[in-house]
Amino acid sequence: MQVKRFEFQVAPLDTLLPEGVPRNSLIGILGETGTGKSALLNEIAYRALKRGENVLFILLEDTPLSRVLNFESLGFEVLPYLREGRLKFIDCFSYRLAGKDIELPDELAEIHSHVEKSIVEVEDPRNEDILWDYIERESRAIKGRGMVLLDSLTECLTIATNPRSLLDLIKALKAVVSKYYFVPFIYTFHFGFYDEFRYALEVASDGVIDLRFNPEVIKEMLVKQMRIRRMSGSYHLANWVTFDIERGKGLVMVK
Predict the structure, then answer these.
(1) Please, what is the end-to-end C-alpha distance for the chain in angstroms?
(2) Most buried in the list 36, 117, 179, 202, measured by CB within 10 Å?
(3) 129 vs 108: CA distance, rounded Å
(4) Which residues pair with 208 in a beta bridge?
(5) Angle of the 37-50 helix axis to the 64-73 helix axis, nearest 10
């Protein structure tokens, strides 16, 4: 039986992966701060929603409301998918606000009323067993017809009680979510932090997407580039391609 495949429908990725990617893949997006990792993850999510898939977004660096505003800043309207229940957030950030009385500005309160219905809040994401329970349960509900995105594993390491346990969690999620449920699992990771963990993580991943600033012109401007370092089960081009981020279009190819 041949494993089903999907196309990202993100211009630079589809150029580098002309035959698409197997659905049972664990894929890392790696790069320095500012190279476009979160913007790429947002567009991957939006394109999946547009083609009828469900998206489970695990947030460790910002709140669900903040992420929705980030979608809107890119020109991607996701409120309809929140209302339909096809976009859900596992919130591993807001536990920091427990016990604090936070009042939203009026202009954000209405947006938050739509967002909060799609939030699964994790009381203590520092506990790997608790985190596993939330991710596995929500992933099971979208098996074969959705994807799981995590932003970012670097932040997850800062709160993990044991890096080895976190690596074991990722391997278990790969086995169950990607290989058994056929739900692609895509995460971001920042270069320059926890390099020893990153090397082990890359080995465990089916695919590695590198983002960087073009070293030839970095002194004049921050030109972003992308390449596929590895993608198991997929033909891919190995060269770097240059891209920019445009509102309403997402990542676009640049000569």
Answers:
(1) 39
(2) 36
(3) 33
(4) 28, 230
(5) 80
